[in-house]
From TrEMBL:
It holds the Pfam family UPF0149. InterPro entries: YgfB-like, YgfB-like_sf. This is YecA family protein. The lineage of its organism: Bacteria, Pseudomonadati, Pseudomonadota, Gammaproteobacteria, Pseudomonadales.
Length: 184
């Protein structure tokens, strides 16, 4: 069961748990968690659950109401991180970040900010070493998207330029994963 990709109900369960136990210092939605896990599986070294799990919660594990609730969240997390690891290692072309979508002035707009926040959180937890210039530029493209304020998109948002920046993230992630994989 730990090798099955998550379905919509699984992501709903993750979202409910993140909202229930999260705060301003924790991962708050499945998009951010997806980015976090993507950085972890792309890291130069494997990160132990004892390090990455508290990282979801800003360093402090929740006071779970029941052991079953904790067990379910951990199992779903492990399934998703395993899916991402397998996907990036075996079929990276199939990898697609779980970005959020919104409508803005009559246009469908992909929001990458929270996913990128999660990715950068994962980079920090995994303690990535400095990157060569090419890879540092790829990471900067992800970091730049994390700095955008997508909670209130500006009226003058250049939707085409925004979507181009967002479209560059998945290829950057694949390249960073491949770089670290070649260094292991």
């Amino acid at each position: 069961m730990q090798d099955q990709p998550l379905n919509a109900a699984d992501f709903d369960a993750i979202e409910s748990t993140l909202l229930k136990y999260g705060d301003d210092h924790s991962v708050l939605n499945p998009s951010e968690l997806d980015g976090y896990f993507t950085a972890l599986v792309s890291s130069p070294e494997q990160v132990d659950i004892a390090e990455w799990f508290p990282g979801i919660w800003g360093g402090q594990n929740p006071a779970w109401e029941t052991p079953d609730e904790a067990k379910q969240f951990i199992e779903l997390s492990v399934r998703h991180i395993n899916t991402l690891a397998r996907q990036l290692a075996e079929d990276s072309a199939a990898f697609a970040p779980r970005f959020e979508q919104t409508e803005h002035l009559g246009h469908d707009v992909t929001l990458a900010e929270e996913w990128c926040f999660g990715y950068l959180r994962g980079v920090a937890v995994a303690n990535w070493t400095p990157l060569p210039a090419i890879q540092a530029t790829l990471l900067q493209a992800i970091s730049d998207c994390a700095e955008q304020d997508n909670f209130e998109l500006p009226q003058d948002l250049d939707v085409v330029a925004h979507q181009q920046r967002v479209a560059a993230i998945a290829p950057a992630v694949r390249a960073l994963h491949d770089y670290w994989l070649s260094q292991r």
